[in-house]
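The aim of this short unit is practical: by the end, you should be able to scan a pair of folded records and say something sensible about each. We start with the first protein, listed as its amino acid sequence and then its structure tokens.
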Amino acid sequence: MTIKDKAKSGVILPLIDQCARDERVDPRDLARDVGSGVAVIPHNRHANLKRPAAIGRGLSTKINANIGTSKDHPDIDTELEKLKVSLEAGAHAVMDLSTGGPIKEIRQAIREACPVPLGTVPIYQAAVETVEVHKRAIREMEPDDILRVIEEQAIEGVDFMTIHCGLTLGALDRLKSDRRTMGIVSRGGSFVFEWMVHNKKENPLYERFDDILAIAREHEVTLSLGDALRPGCIADASDGAQIHELIILGELTLRAWEKGVQVMIEGPGHMPMDQIPANMLIQKRLCHGAPFYVLGPLVTDIAPGYDHITSAIGGAIAAASGADFLCYVTPAEHLKLPSLDDVKEGIIASRIAAHAADIVKGVPGATEKDREMAEARQRLDWQRQIDLSIDPIKARLYWEEGGAYKGPTCTMCGEYCAIKTFRRAISRCDKKGGDAV
């Protein structure tokens, strides 16, 4: 039996109990939600996660960090350092998106060093091997090779996989009629699209979904049903192609649940702020409440170098409106492979968005640190303020740069500090024992 099967039958696994304690929720409630599919705990049978994560309804919003090599930057050590930075910055899960160098060895090294759920996009490896090993074009990928890679990665302990199975021939017709500004911006989605157009056949990931489910069930892999048609600019948001794919993913979700396979749904993308709440509602409705995993959304297209901010704005709105899992976006998005600093900046921005949303959602414990921070600020307790910060290192750096450690107030206000002034005034008011005025 799978995690979902056991949870559905009322069994509270140690894994569920651990995650429930971390989330401050009743383990029976978490087991019920995992059993029904509105929450997932990605945990491959062959992995031993020290920091598992529960994702879904009533739980804190989780953050994923994407790392991985490219053909131009195939260094394993750099990606392992990015993994370290990601974990230190507070990522709850990591995806290896490597497309350069010894991909299998890189993934194995990351898996060995990764205590949190690890995700991949198997079609990346299948495409790279088709080009570099078999000396064929991506459009000539063999469906059997894609399935072989999925099984290989499952055996190696990958906890969740992005599978672009909702891009069907029907969706292609919709895509053609909609005349998008940017077409398909999903890398995996573009590989599938090219294969379908060249071979004039249905998406093999859709046609062979039952085979994928068999692999996922055997090795306890959570499927992250990929958004091949996510909008790559705000002009393409909420179009027919995007919604068509979502309908297909909802149908596939039910098929996966019947086999005891856990499922997440991936979502946009670029999207104007006013469309985000409706998109979260539509996804939950069409996909039967399955956890929603969103990239951003990015709320404007014109901020290269600052897309961690555009993403955090969209992510906060999305999570407050029902999204469960935010994929970070770094300042390097659309420009280059992210550096170590970019990775940290992206995670911190997403964590801020997630926490802001958790306050709105009433997640247990979400407001506690904010209250403690307010009390520490009122006391002018700088060390406690730094300790409570999402990024204590940066908070301390700024505090020390300003020289505030030399006195009780910071260098913004100095002797004209509002808190200090209020204290003095309220003290006099209390001594007089009368009204403030």
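Turning to the second protein, read its sequence before its tokens, just as you did above.
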Amino acid sequence: MSEKTGWFQRWLLPGLAFKAVVIGGGYATGRELASYFLPSGPRGGLYAMLLAMVIWSTVCAVTFLFALRTSSRDYRTFFKNLLGRFWPLYEVAYLAALVVILAAFAAAAGAIAHAVFGLPPIAGALALMALITLVAAWGNDSVERLFKYVSFLLYGTYAVFLVLSLLKFGGRIGTAFATETPTTGWPVGGLTYAGYNIIGAIIILPVTRHLTSRKDAVIAGVLAGPLAMAPAVLFFIVMAGFYPTIQQQVLPSDFLLGQLGFPAFRILFQVMIFAALLESGTGGVHAINERIAQAYRRGDERTFTKPMRLAVTVAILAGSVFVADRVGLVSLIANGYRWLSYVLLAIYVAPLLTFGVWQLSRPAAAAGQPAVEPAVQ
């Protein structure tokens, strides 16, 4: 089997890409974990994370199966097959969601630049936007390489972070989980968090071009949940040691790094967060570019060129930086993300798990699809 369709591309790359999208501005900094999981206490937070992980795996698997069945490699094609003439509903929701999400990434980058280097927040935001523009303009191969190599940095850094934290204040962590605290509200936290982040399964549709069978789609989908949630669980375990005071921190990650007292590792961790913001933002913009490229093509007559990708990327990011500068990270996560969850559950998850599953249960020919699954492009 060629390298292009090897097991890594078919089974792991979609999950790593999904992780790349959901880790974003709030997950990587700990702000999302503080907002949606810590209110239910250390143990309740873990219950909520497990619920979110199961939802992610289920929806990703069905999404990948539906994309394979309908040969949908961009979100426009996917939702035309899922929602029919109502597909523009997702277009509007996605554009609004992307601006909010990228604004949160820009705000996080700005907060990191200010906390670590004392720079104005706008400097960090602009640096992140410039790098996203550079990577997204080069198309699929560039984006997939980013997903792959940043993942190595990310998983390794979180593992070291957990080990250092257990050595430094493992007693606090153990006490936090041993202490009886209310766990009420964890289903809502898990559902809300899973709901707005599940957009990642649609954003990464371009990487599903490597899938060759239903087995690939199911394996890739099931693995996506654990691959995306594993770093969050490691991070949350450490955060629990400082429950409940850490909930008030804008950058829980920087607070914890300050408690560790290792300046060199603090810089490495913030570099990792910046890289995570880069891959998340690139994934979101890349989905827009691929959707436009698909609509722009007419056989072999027209090509969506790199300068065109660059122009679209700059336009989207400029609006996002403006929103980030006006609203801020905490407000974006606490308010903007919640309504995104409800909208996406209504126009994506509910139709997929009803009509989409019904379509998948029918023979390909009866469902109006080719009897043989489309070849990988």
